[in-house]
Amino acid sequence: xxxxxxxxxxxxxxxxxxxxxxxxxxxxxxxxxxxxxxxxxxxxxxxxxxxxxxxxxxxxxxxxxxxxxxxxxxxxxxxxxxxxxxxxxxxxxxxxxxxxxxxxxxxxxxxxxxxxxxxxxxxxxxxxxxxxxxxxxxxxxxxxxxxxxxxxxxxxxxxxxxxxxxxxxxxxxxxxxxxxxxxxxxxxxxxxxxxxxxxxxxxxxxxxxxxxxxxxxxxxxxxxxxxxxxxxxxxxxxxxxxxxxxxxxxxxxxxxxxxxxxxxxxxxxxxxxxxxxxxxxxxxxxxxxxxxxxxxxxxxxxxxxxxxxxxxxxxxxxxxxxxxxxxxxxxxxxxxxxx
Length: 339
Ligand SMILES: NC(=O)c1ccc[n+]([C@@H]2O[C@H](COP(=O)([O-])OP(=O)(O)OC[C@H]3O[C@@H](n4cnc5c(N)ncnc54)[C@H](O)[C@@H]3O)[C@@H](O)[C@H]2O)c1
What we know:
Blueprint: E1 2-7, E2 11-17, H1 23-26, E3 35-41, H2 42-55, E4 60-66, H3 75-87, E5 95-100, H4 102-114, E6 120-125, H5 128-134, E7 142-144, E8 147-151, E9 159-163, H6 172-188, H7 202-219, H8 234-243, H9 250-268, H10 273-285, H11 296-304, E10 309-310, E11 313-319, E12 325-331, H12 332-335
Parallel strand pairs: 2-9, 3-4, 3-5, 5-6, 6-9
Antiparallel strand pairs: 1-2, 7-8, 10-11, 11-12
Helix pairs in contact: 5-6, 5-7, 6-9, 8-9, 8-11, 9-10
């Protein structure tokens, strides 16, 4: 078992273990009230709900199940969830547990941050992507028709419990998706080396990723500067998610977005061609295709509507080599020639 301490607006611990054994000592004492709401999706429900429920001895457990998939991270399901919590009599002293991937995590943390102006929240991420990224850092939210993650809060959890055994049931495509976020860390912070991406040890990569994210979030919780580094590959990645109508996963689009970001880093930054090609080789090894299904105009029109855009400029994350992320204000139109 490994413990990572986070010192943000709320201090909390991330436990990384290969089983649920340490849940009783690490998490149970943090649950003060009697009532616990476990929010999950239909896939994770059938795999892990019973195991988690059996760990919550002495508590009254209420289960709320979303259909799986990004399209369900929406306002309608959010309103239904908070109404269902109220109908079940969950009070300010209750705890919400988010059991699932990033979709369940973003939604359940948003519910916890707003229900009765905020209740305790514990994250149990079950995808690689949510283990290394979305469960930590306090960004919560849902998608609106106008775009992804447009309604949300900053709200730190009381604890995060990562059971790496959950990866055993994760489809290959979702592993690829999580690897995208891990590669993102490798491009911006030297603690994940290219060699770590060749001989993959998931537990090691999860701990290193969490340490990198923890350090950045501690220095810039509200994303006024350095935290933007975590958006490497995401500006174009988010645009692609929308253009593919969410048929490709977040991580797959981030991988494609990183390939574009490498190209842009050689044209508008200091990335050498050699390092760009090495980076592209890693991205390609994940199995995503580099097919350019959309024109530069299509991509940039979505980038312009992104919440990170500021008029005709955007804070774009470039890399000047593995471990060397740089934030640069770039005119959106000047990206056209790089795409
Ligand atoms: N808050 C943040 O900081 C942050 C950061 C990155 C991404 N995100 C968000 O995360 C979301 C993507 O998360 P995701 O990639 O985890 O997708 P997801 O939550 O949709 O999970 C992917 C699929 O895997 C299934 N699944 C989950 N755990 C499983 C397991 N152990 N075994 C088998 N199947 C399992 C789910 O049911 C789902 O069908 C996006 O909405 C993205 O915007 C948020």
